[in-house]
Amino acid sequence: MTDAAELLSVSSVVLLDFDGPVTPLMPAPANMRATDAARQALTAHGTTLPDDIAATSDHLAVIRWAGKHAPDALEDVDAACTAAEVESARTCIPTPGAHTLLAALHEAQVWVVIVSNNAEPAIYAYIRRHKLGKYLYEVVGRPPRRPDLMKPHPYMVERALGMARARAQDAVLIGDSVSDIEVARATGIRSIGYAKTQERGAELRAAGADALVHSMATLAPG
Question: What is the pTM of this model?
């Protein structure tokens, strides 16, 4: 496995996942509030939920399900999730080391593009709150009403590369989910997995992460 710092040193563009590497956007109970709001939007349309969707605490899973099985409700489901994410973005705390890393990459003239399955309004709410805009080149968030294009679909990563006018071989993606590693592999980008637990580290390694870190502070100098 490659050294994470070495991957950063040879990359001119960093594609950075948001929820996890930058901030734990949806910690409990915020995750369940978002998921309940998404389910309520579905049931308001008279939709019957399968057991797995009725029990999940992952609001993104509800959006994905709505996109496939309840398209008439999708706009309301997405809106409910976006509102919950924005609310959480007003209070969530930074991931240790994340802001320092953003400042260091900016100083090194490395372009950073947030690429996240969360909604852009929530990401921008957090960016404004912490005055991080000067460190970021662009933000690519969840395509409204198109959950089929969320990671691991390559659409968002390819859009980010196009915005940065970068080749895949010049970029590295930092993410904490298997879908991040899968989309990196699908688009030919090197990846750094942020593993908050040993179990997650094993999952990211099995998915093909090029490097692993257990703390974002590991990537931040000083």
Answer: 0.95
Tell me how far apart the alpha carbons of residues 112 and 82 are, in angstroms, rounded to a whole number: 23
CA-CA distance, 129 to 179, in Å (whole number)? 28
State the first-to-last Cα distance of the chain, in angstroms, to the nearest integer: 24
Strand 111-115 versus strand 13-16 pairing type: parallel
Pair 112, 216: CB distance under 8 Å: no
Listed in order, strand segments (DSSP E) in the chain are: 13-16, 111-115, 138-140, 171-175, 190-194, 211-213
Say whether the peptide bond before residue 121 is cis (omega within 30 degrees of 0).
no
Q: How far apart are CA 217 and CA 166, in angstroms?
A: 26
- 154-170 mean pLDDT: 97
Label residue 2 by pLDDT band (50, 70, 90). confident
